[in-house]
Structures are given as C-alpha cells and as structure tokens.
Amino acid sequence: MKRRNWRAIAGVLLVLTVAGYLVIQGISETGVYYWTVSEVLAGPRSENDRSIRISGNVVDGTIDYNQKDLVLAFTVSDTEDTTKTIDALYNGPAPDAFTAGVEVVLEGIYDHESNTFKATVLLAKCPSKYDSEESGY
User: In terms of Cα–Cα distance, which of 69, 82, 76 is closest to 118?
Assistant: First the structure.
C-alpha cells in the first residue's frame, strides 16, 4: 500500500511541475515590459522584429489622422525628456481620449532605421477624474 501512495505522490508532483513550467513559459513569452522612448532609442537594434510596448506623450501638432483609411500618424515623446521622440503609425480607429499631450501606450514593432514605431495596439490614458487639481486638494 505504501508503494502505491509514493507513486501517486510522485505522479502529482510531476503534473504540478509540468503545469508550473508551462505557466512560467507562457507568462515570460507573452509578458511585455513597458519601454520609455529614451530606452527604445538607446536600445539594441536587435529589438527590431520583436513586439515591444512603449509609453510616451503625444507631441502637439504632429497628429495626422486619415479617417477614411483609418491611418493615424503622430509623434510620441519621452515623458521625462521631451527632446527624444519617435514617429508612430497606427492602423485603426483613434481612441476617444487620443489628443495632443495625452500619455499613450503603444504595442508593436520599432524600426531603428526609420525611427518609426508601427503600432498594432494604441491605448490613450485619460486623466483620472480623481486626480487632485491645483486647487489645494
């Protein structure tokens, strides 16, 4: 009877180990780190062809939106150093909160040669209605 218990325990441990390994692999392959514009510009060229996610602010006066073809072109700047910028292209409808100066998160592929980020996902962060205003709150 004891021999059978050890086999069952070993089987359960094996299944748990394999399941844990698969979960960790899935998270590491699909998890995406947020890069800043400065990090992308300074990063290795090996990042071309690899999907990354960047965050930055939409530069005022750079938005060009073709509503007929749903092509959105704009420039995104680093949140800390506004002199560092990347041109962005996105095919799809612009989010309602998308305007100049808003912080955006882009997911896609960066091309170092043309300094263009080809986004497949565009998320515009809207200011929280709970953020305190400069009125002293």
Answer: 76
pLDDT tens string 10-19: 888 899 999 8
Helices (H), the chain: 2-30, 37-42
Distance between CA 9 and CA 3 in Å, rounded?
10
Question: Quick one: how far is CA 129 from the chain centroid?
Answer: 24
Do strands 34-36 and 85-91 pair parallel, antiparallel, or not at all (unpaired)? unpaired
Task: State how far the Cα of 99 lies from the Cα of 101, in Å rounded to an integer.
Answer: 6
Measured in whole angstroms, the distance separating CA 38 from the mean position of its chain's CA atoms is 14
pLDDT tens digit string along 63-121?
A: 999 999 999 999 999 999 999 999 999 999 999 889 999 999 999 999 988 999 999 99
